[in-house]
Amino acid sequence: MRFLLIEDNAKLARAIVEHLQLDGHAVDHADRLEVAENFISVADYDLILLDIMLPDGDGRAFLQQQRQREKRTPVIVTTARSAVSDRISLLDLGADDYITKPFDFAELEARCRAVLRRQGGAADNRKSFAGASLDSTTAELKFADQTIDLRNRELRLLEVFFNAPGQVFAKSHLMDRLFSFSDEVSENAIEVYVARLRKRLEGSGARIETVRGLGYRMVAV
Amino acid sequence: MNPRNSIRGRLFLQLVGVAALLSLAFFLVVRGVAERAAEGTQDDILLASATAIADSLRSEDGQVTLDLPYSALSMLGTISDDRVFYRVVSAGKTLTGYSDLPLADPAPALGRPAFSTLTYRGDEVRAASVVRAVGPATDSQAVVVSVAQTRLGLAAISRRITTTATGVGIGFFLAATLLSLWASHLALRPIVRMTDSVARRGPQDLRAVPSDPPEELAPLVEALNSFMARLSASLSRTEDFIAEAAHRVRTPLATVRAQAELTHRKLKKPEHKQAVREMIRAIDESSRSAGQMLDHAMVTFRADALAQDDLDLAALMGEVCDRLAPTADLKDIAIRRDLPAAPVVFKGDGILLQAALQNILDNAIKYSPDDSEIAASVTVADGLRLSIADQGRGLDGIDIAGLTTRFNRGSNVGDVVGSGLGLTIADEVARAHGGRLTIAPNDEGVGACVSLILPR
Amino acid sequence: MRLAHLATLIAGLFLASAALAFEVEDRRLFEASPQRSVLKVISTADLDVFTPIILAFQADNPGIAVDYTVTGTTDLMRAIHDEGAQFDLAISSAMDLQTKLVNDGFAQAYTAPASVLPDWAIWRDHLFAFTQEPAVLVVSDAFFAPGEAPRNRDELITLLRENPDRFQGRIGTYDVRTSGFGYLVATQDSRNSEAFWRLMEVMGRLDAKLYCCSGDMIRDVASGELALAYNVLGSYAASQLQTTQGFRIVRLSDFVNVMLRTSLIPANAENVEDARAMIDFLSGLNRRADLVTASGLPGIDSAALQETPSLRPIRFGPGLLVFLDQLKRQNFLRSWESSLVQE
Asked: What digits encode the pLDDT tens for the residues A147-199?
């Protein structure tokens, strides 16, 4: 996906950009509204991450403008402000969602997915392998004539495999992917989810293969 | 109405006091005037009688003689039944009449009658005396005619006058009292009106009071307006401060967390990852604490001046569930909604109620295990009940009352991130709306059910 | 001897001064058994007139004995006014003397129950009238055939003037010098019309006989010795009609003076309670037809007065004191004497 990050804090911006890139997304960073306007005029974005408090003006005005544009790119507002009223008014102004800083990237990802899903999935977020396709936005696994709705963790886990079919992923890596920092889980939890995935994939052309001592990988049946 | 503490009371009492004084003065004046008039009447009749007698004096063969006219005494019986005495003195000798009737002092002069009040035969009498020159011009004698009358009739009139004057005085006083009541009520109407218009305002309304008050109230209104301006400024400063504090605390935390998460992703060694994970957890905890403290400050701040929005509680609960769905999703927790189809109408502060519900739901998500279900419901019974039931560790053996006190965490939530302010905030919001927060074991088996109960 | 004489003299003087000087004409004690109290009454009304009244009073108020003393109007006045005699009730036909007693402070007040006596019958809550007795002309049947009697004063004067021979020495009236009632009605007459002096003049020329008392006058008219008597006490005459023949009563049509017999409670009365009871009883005399007939005293009756406009009750008031004034009295008597007592 193509993100536009509008954030004036350089360090934070750098971290966010890197994170999104590691996830496989393309990110443009504007540190001012003026710059953002320029970016928007030349490129199409799937999602805009907007810091509401910007040095050259309140992001609200930008939000209002966005709303009136023909090609409406969804906006998720990042805010450090606490006032609930602020949150409500942001949604009134045209933000599709908001997330408070500091945020968990997993949450950000989930909210992005939710926003895009609501929008109607213009972005092509589908990955295919061995006759099965995974739509990250809608969280659907399709193969043969079945459409399976995946739950969040199932989706996140399957995403990893679908992004790099055949690649071996260590349990620890998968755990990072699956659980938040507040969860205290053992490696056995991974096995539970892998088992679930295997069940889901039954009948499709793909399967998860245990690589003893190393981890798991997805291969064609 | 304690007269000492009420302007109306004081005004009324003062007016009544004035009325009492006036009534008394009126009574005294009326009585004085009327009595003097009555006395004047008696004096007039006595004088007429004395004059009639004096008119009948003649000189016969050098002797002064008198033909007492019948009317002279009978006229004295016309206004009252008083006892009558008379005496005619010529050359120091009593010609006729009551010889022991005291003579007027000073004595009357020609054309100038004398009046006196004296005691005679055990009663107070009023006497009129006239002097006449009787006889030929060269040898006239001065004859003094005195006519006296007791004053019982006068006393009776005086009593009647007093009674009437008292009655009128009291009537006047009562009327004045009623009018005072009405007047003091009227006088204070501008104050009442102004109080009403200020009282009718919503809690957020700190506009200046419209001017053009009565002259005496102008300084008060001015002071009130300046006070409200200062309060308004102070309030917005507080709001600004809270927002500013949030921003200043969270922005650096955001940077650190993002970088930490990134670092965690790149590290390989489990013990390194563990360390960073703990760091991130610490950041999350402080961020959440800060957030909740600021939320709590805002709640306390708003609860004093509760807004009265028209809300649909079912829709509100739905929005909160929507908002936190992604968070729940991360743990594969499903939020089941049991919401009535029809709107559940309630007048309250939407922002505070949303904050409360969000905190309860966030709490539930935090303490629920993965793959569990949280039930969010709105029911209408004695009150309006907004419940969130989870399948977490439950509340067995936990001090429920203590759970909602500030910063208190349940004894079985030791290893989950979160400060204890969530339920405190919800509890305060409930109380601000006249309701309460209840925490009970989930009647579906495991877990707890936290309910916000609002009065209908 | 001389010492005893002196002692007797002194004792006699002492006794004399102790004894009251007013003359008692009659006295009777009406006993009651059981006797609770005694009511001492001094009155100018004869016993045969008042006895039925006293007995009826005692019947209504058992236990009260009545000590009834009869005396003349002037004596009654002297007893109360000058001598301080102790009585509980003083009844007199001399309205003027009673008025002076009240005026000079010798009576006490009694607020009688309302609606028994009309207002004009009470003066200052001190004097209580209980009869209305006219002064009438009494004519002899022997002298006047029915219908021949003069109807008013003018007619009387004309009659007398034109028939001196017939009436010479045959007219009678009160000696106002000695009769209190006579003085009262004569002075009231003199106020009411100038005809009075003309009448006195003509009576004087006819050598009118002067009487002290009503009884004697009526007797002489009845016997025919007098042709007529003027200003006779009507109640007395009316009661005499029952027993004596030969006279009749004429009420002159121009005006008739009506005397109100009054009672008062002296200031020094001891038995005030019973005195008040007697006053209340007398006030209702008009309603006791039996007593009115028995005593011959007509009770207070406003209606009767209104029916006959010529009846003029003598009004209460200080005016009644006027003719008691010594100079006024002197003047009046002088005029009266010069008319009636012509040598």
From this structure: 888 888 888 888 888 888 888 988 888 888 888 777 777 778 888 889 988 98
- The torsion angles phi and psi of B347, rounded to 5 degrees, stand at -105, 115
Cα distances from B95 to residues B303, C229, C296, in angstroms, run 107, 36, 43
Q: Å from C13 to nearest chain B CA?
A: 30
Within a 13 Å sphere around the CA of C60, how many CA atoms are in the beta-carbon half? Answer: 15
C and A adjacent (3 or more CB pairs under 8 angstroms): no
In a domain, C9, yes or no: no
Provide the residue type at C339 as one letter.
S
CATH architecture of the domain with range B7-172? 2-Layer Sandwich (3.30)
Neighbours of chain C (3+ CB pairs under 8 A): B
Residues C181 and C329 in one domain: yes
Residue B244 and residue B43: Cα distance in Å, rounded?
Answer: 98
Supply A32's token pair: 């001012």
**Cβ separation C327–B95 shorter than 8 A:** yes
The answer to whether residue A207 neighbours chain B at the CB level (below 8 Å) is no
Query: Quick one: closest CA in B to C107, which residue?
Result: B83
| Same structural domain, C268 and C332 | no
Q: Which residues of B touch A176 (CB under 8 A)?
A: 264-265, 273
User: Could you give all domains of chain A from N- to C-terminal order, each with its CATH number?
Assistant: 2-119 (3.40.50.2300), 126-220 (1.10.10.10)
DSSP C121: G
Question: What is the architecture, at CATH level 2, of domain B306-454?
Answer: 2-Layer Sandwich (3.30)
Chains touching A, CB cut-off 8 Å, 3+ pairs: B
Q: Is the distance from CB of A135 to CB of A142 less than 8 angstroms?
A: yes
Closest CA to B39 of B158, B164, B168, B166: B158
Are residues C229 and C270 part of one domain? no
Count how many pairs of residues, chain A against chain B, have C-beta atoms within 8 Å. 123
Find the residue in B nearest to A20 (Cα): B262
Q: How close, in Å, is residue B231 to chain A by CA atoms?
A: 20
Instruction: State the complex-level ipTM.
Output: 0.86
Segments forming the whole domain that contains residue C145: 134-258+324-340
**Yes or no, beta carbons of B76 and C318 under 8 Å apart:** yes
Q: Do residue C184 and residue C124 come from a single domain?
A: no
Pairing of strands A132-135, A126-129: antiparallel
Which residue of B42, B58, B75, B84 is the best one to mutate when testing the C interface, meaning the one whose CB has the most C CBs within 10 A? Answer: B84
Please give, rounded to a whole number of angstroms, the shortest distance from the CA of B177 to a CA of chain C.
Answer: 40
Predicted TM-score (pTM) of the model is 0.57
Instruction: State whether A84 and B327 contact (CB < 8 Å).
Output: no
**pLDDT tens sequence across B137-190:** 777 788 999 999 998 888 888 888 888 888 888 888 899 888 888 888 888 887
- pLDDT tens for residues C139-150? 999 888 888 889
Chain B: touching chains (3 or more CB pairs < 8 Å): A, C
